[in-house]
Specification:
The complex is a heterotetramer of chains A (about 190), B (about 300), C (about 375) and D (about 170). With about 190 residues, chain A is of the alpha/beta class. Chain A has 9 helices and 5 strands, in the order H-H-E-H-E-E-H-E-H-E-H-H-H-H. In chain B, about 70% of the residues lie in helices and about 0% in strands. Classes of the chains: A alpha/beta (about 190), B mainly alpha (about 300), C alpha+beta (about 375), D alpha/beta (about 170).
């Protein structure tokens, strides 16, 4: 952990800030939420790594998809994800968002979450232990350091494809598209 | 003369920001220890702010941006009228009444900004914030009136000076009741439990903050830090005798803050009507009684 | 005054699980509340029809994540009833101890949720820590922290390990020694009393009419507990009391939960004293060829939220023909919640919801 | 000495003509009745003290081409004999256009159960105030809990057909 490395802070404050201040959106998408209270309270205390749950997507930059995603939840996941300010990171928690896990033949759960929104990392297992959350967080740090946690750029660049997939499952989405076309990362910087 | 004033202004704003953020970090650390946790580093609020400034921010229109700046400016202006030890940039020009008036600007600014966001939780949060402000303004006004009558001045610097001569206000029997009343309403001014109902993340999704992202959230955090500094400094200046040098003053406000933090840890939050009922009952009665006592006993100075 | 439609959840810090309520509010008062479940619907009962009798065990425990153990018990009991399997005496005691530990864990989780809802982080953190101590016991006993799959048709999967009895006693003493702390800071707190008293009030008559069970019913003064009326496992072997309160509001419900937790601790001590020696497992037929005669069964037990039932139908095959769980949160979350929220303040939505002890996965299944 | 179940069975058989009742277990009474007498049987049982509707379930007997509805009743009672009883009231309806009267007037908490069965089995409950979707987001041609709905095939047809974004990009 290089949180106390002042040189790095001066060199790239944005990156360091994103690393050590991960505000996780509190959204109980599935049964994985049962391990979130232990990991944010006394026994494991995620706050010492700067990970705290926040109430609204506007304040969050880490989206923990805790467990299986039913079709009805997917709509709200997309909605919340699009509301989060960039840069934002998504981590799938548990086996179910990876490939359906236990519910591989259920008619109401999404099998591969990354077909609908970009996911930066996965935590496998059912149920992953709270330690696994911390392993994921340290991996995410490495990814942010190397600039590889760029799911949000991918979302922007492939927005049309993602939106098509979303509409195939959910029917017509009631909110307007976030981007009018697929935007490349460099292009976006010049617009914004 | 002008130069020193400007330097003092910059110094006090920086200092208040640093101390406020330090207090925020300290509160997270101490609360964590009370929870039997290790807690975040004390610089965590600063890290959060650095991150927030490096995020994209969603604006909801002109008033949304303006309101935040307005409330931040309101807090900054209050700072200039508060003596910090001997440093007080605008001590001659203002008094308690100005402070009382300016302290209302910060919630109003947030209300302006949140009203533009058009999120129902934001509007509920703002109505709670304004109601709570009305709740504590009444006893606060009574307390300040008592203090002003007792010391026969509206200048806060003079009040501090008089306390140097005659001991802290708490040692004056006639100011005991208002002092207790101030202690009772201070959690409400600080937004501590049991009055932590403005944000109340479990009830109204962090209320006025619900729509803030990126730099707006950073600015509101800084404003919150200023607010903590201001409310505790005012209390220290009025009742704990201020201080002759900044170091001593800092120790005093630190002690006050930590004591209120402990109270914060052992209460759930009120509902808004219960909070108002509480604020308008005991603190107001005590402050009013204090005012009458002071009026009867007459001016001491 | 203008009526406003407010969406409470599913993304909300005060939500228990993935659940949503649509509130019609006038000012601060709720005019009408509509529960909107289904965010966690996985079609469990359909999936169970496609798996063999034994394969279903990993599935059933995932129905309610807060308290998987009673789900296992329910399924095992139903299978035992259909197939006519007996459970050894020692296994009955182990089941009871295990289920009571699960009840304590679940109640501590509920306490976390409730304290957190009221903004009482301190107690919330303590409760979660104590729950972790209970989960440590489970981990040693079964190998899993959350999902255990410990109860099996014909008994339990394995006996207590060496010295496990002492560790249970140690853990319970640790938790028990903090009860005065909890009482002083939380249960006897004046602000808590003000927040919870007369909130979400339902009378005994209403509760019966709307199918309330568990704490919600016991908080209205009705002394009903399936552990007493239809004893399963080893609950008829020891003496214990049903804690009851009479006011039917959030305050009484939380106090019932607290009393129940303490009663559970005492019960575990009594069960440990009386526990006989012997086998813990009656052999079942080869699970790959296991066919169960053409019958149906309804079994029920008292989970930490109230009456939990399972209607299980077999058509003589190697898979269940139909399974239907009757979960306690179902009526609490869909009927009583809508009634209890009427004319309350927005600030109390989460308060009432958690005091009714609703868990969303149970409703949706 | 007859137990509670036997007594209740005799009482039921006296009051109703076209029902079969059977005490299969010590604490279990199964009642089979026609679909139009369900509501009267339930209200009779409610008045005799079995006032807790625990569950309304449905079994799809596809070979006989019927849906079997099961109402499970227990009692809120401190009297041991009564509290132990489980009463299963069963009725059979056709699979095509299934419909019967709602039991909400008798048991208020039947509302969500009936809504669920409407959604998952396609049973229409006449007189139900809101038969709106409860759990499901997508629409299904065959209600998903019926035996002829094959969820594995459905998963293959719907979820597995959606391409990964990388594949899609490579295509273009």
């Amino acid at each position: 952990m290089d949180r106390n490395n002042l040189g790095k802070w001066l060199k790239s404050p944005g990156k360091m800030g994103q690393k050590y201040s991960l505000h996780a959106l509190y959204f109980c998408t599935g049964c994985g939420i049962i391990e979130i209270p232990p990991s944010i309270t006394t026994r494991w205390d995620a706050e010492r790594f700067g990970v705290i749950p926040v109430a609204t997507p506007r304040q969050a930059n880490l989206f923990l998809i805790t467990g299986y995603v039913s079709v009805k939840t997917l709509r709200y996941i997309i909605r919340s994800y699009e509301q989060m300010p960039e840069p934002k990171f998504t981590v799938g928690f548990g086996s179910c968002p990876i490939n359906g896990g236990m519910y591989w033949d259920s008619y109401n759960t999404i099998k591969h979450l990354d077909k609908y929104i970009p996911v930066d990392g996965w935590i496998a297992g059912c149920m992953p232990r709270p330690e696994a959350v911390f392993v994921a967080v340290t991996h995410l740090w490495t990814l942010i350091d190397k600039g590889m946690a760029d799911g949000y750029n991918k979302y922007r660049a492939n927005y049309q494809y993602y939106r098509e997939n979303q509409e195939k499952i959910l029917g017509k989405l009631e909110w307007p598209p976030l981007f009018s076309k697929n935007i490349k990362h460099e292009e976006y910087r010049t617009i914004a | 003369m002008v130069m020193t004033t400007i330097l003092e202004i910059i110094f006090i704003i920086l200092l208040a920001g640093i101390i406020g953020l330090f207090f925020l970090g300290l509160s997270r650390k101490i609360m964590a220890r009370i929870h039997w946790r290790y807690g975040p580093p004390i610089t965590q609020p600063l890290i959060d702010i650095i991150k927030l400034f490096n995020q994209t921010s969603m604006s909801h229109g002109f008033l949304f941006n303006f309101g935040i700046i307005f409330s931040l400016a309101g807090s900054v202006v209050v700072l200039l009228f508060l003596p910090f030890g001997r440093i007080c940039p605008l001590s001659d020009s203002g008094g308690l009444l100005v402070i009382l008036y300016l302290m209302l600007i910060a919630p109003l600014g947030l209300a302006l900004s949140g009203g533009e966001a058009a999120n129902p939780y934001t509007s509920i949060g703002i109505s709670r914030k304004l109601l709570l402000a009305f709740g504590y303004e009444l006893p606060l006004l009574l307390i300040l009136l008592t203090v002003m009558t007792h010391y026969n001045t509206i200048s806060i610097v003079e009040i501090v000076n008089k306390q140097f001569q005659a001991g802290w206000s708490f040692q004056h029997l006639s100011l005991l009741l208002p002092g207790i009343a101030y202690i009772l309403i201070l959690p409400a001014i600080l937004g501590f439990r049991p009055f932590e109902l403005i944000q109340a993340p479990q009830e109204i999704s962090s209320g006025p903050m619900a729509e803030y992202s990126g730099k707006f959230l950073a600015l509101t955090t800084i404003q919150h830090a200023f607010n903590i500094f201001i409310s505790i400094s005012l209390f220290t200046n009025l009742f704990l005798g201020g201080a002759a040098n900044p170091g001593y003053f800092f120790l005093k406000i630190l002690a006050v803050f930590v004591i209120f933090l402990f109270a914060n840890a052992v209460f759930p939050r009120f509902r808004i009507e219960q909070a108002i009922k509480y604020l308008w009952r005991w603190p107001s009665i005590l402050a009013f009684a204090g005012l009458i006592i002071v009026l009867i006993t007459g001016k001491n100075f | 005054m203008r009526e406003l439609e407010l969406y409470f959840g599913p993304q909300h810090l005060g939500m228990v699980g993935n659940f949503s309520i649509t509130l019609n509010v006038e000012g601060d008062r709720i005019v009408k509340a509509t529960a909107n479940p289904g965010f966690l619907h996985r079609g469990f009962e359909k999936l169970m029809e496609q798996r063999t009798w034994i394969q279903n065990f990993p599935l059933v425990c995932r129905i309610n994540v807060v308290e998987p153990d009673h789900m296992e018990l329910m399924y095992a009991m139903a299978v035992e009833k259909l197939a006519g399997i007996e459970v050894p005496e020692r296994a009955r005691f182990i089941r009871s101890i295990y289920l009571e530990l699960a009840r304590i864990g679940s109640h501590l989780f509920g306490l976390w949720a409730y304290a957190n809802m009221l903004g009482f982080d301190t107690v919330a953190n303590w409760a979660m820590y104590h729950r972790d101590l209970v989960l440590d016991l489970f981990e040693e006993l079964t190998g899993g922290r959350v999902y255990h799959i410990y109860i099996w048709p014909g008994g339990v999967r394995r006996d207590f390990p060496e010295g496990f009895k002492d560790r249970i006693i140690n853990t319970l003493h640790t938790i028990g020694s903090c009860v005065p702390d909890y009482d002083n800071t939380f249960f006897n707190n004046r602000v808590f009393y003000k927040r919870a008293k007369n909130i979400g009030k339902i009378t005994c008559e209403e509760a019966k009419r709307m199918g309330a069970v568990g704490q919600v019913l016991r908080a209205t003064g009705m002394k009903q507990d399936i552990r007493k009326t239809e004893p399963y496992a080893a609950y008829d072997q020891v003496d214990w009391e049903i804690p009851v309160r009479t006011d039917g509001d959030a305050y009484s419900r939380i106090w019932v939960v607290r009393d129940e937790m303490i009663e559970s601790v005492h019960m575990i001590f009594k069960l440990l004293d009386k526990m006989p020696e012997g086998e813990v497992y009656n052999k079942i037929p080869n699970p790959f060829k296991w066919k169960i005669p053409d019958k149906d069964a309804y079994v029920r037990c008292e989970s930490s939220r109230g009456e939990l039932g399972l209607y299980l139908v077999s058509n003589g095959g190697d898979k269940p023909y139909r399974a239907h769980f009757r979960t306690p949160s179902y009526n609490h979350g869909l009927t009583i919640l809508e009634k209890a929220l009427e004319n309350e303040s927005i600030a109390d939505v989460g308060n009432i919801m958690i005091s009714l002890y609703i868990t969303a996965p149970e409703i949706d299944r | 000495m007859k137990n509670t179940g036997q007594l209740l069975k005799e009482k039921l058989l006296l009051s109703f003509e076209d029902i079969q009742a059977e005490v299969s277990d010590e604490h279990r009474l199964t009642v089979n009745c026609r679909k139009d007498t369900v509501i009267t049987v339930l209200s009779f049982l409610n008045n005799s003290g079995y006032d807790h509707l625990a569950l309304i379930s449905c079994v799809d007997w596809i070979k006989d081409n019927v849906l079997e509805l099961v109402y499970i009743l227990t009692a809120y009672a401190e009297d041991k004999g009564k509290a132990k009883m489980n009463i299963l009231v069963k009725t059979r309806i056709t699979r095509e256009k299934p419909g019967l009267h709602t039991v909400i007037p008798v048991f208020e908490n039947a509302e969500p159960y009936e809504r669920e069965l409407h959604e998952l089995y396609g049973i229409h409950f006449m007189g139900h105030p809101r038969l709106t979707p409860l759990f499901l987001e997508r629409e299904y041609k065959i209600p998903p809990f019926r035996k002829d709905f094959d969820t594995r095939k459905y998963v293959q047809e719907v979820f597995d057909q959606i391409p990964f974004v990388e594949d899609k990009k490579a295509e273009k």
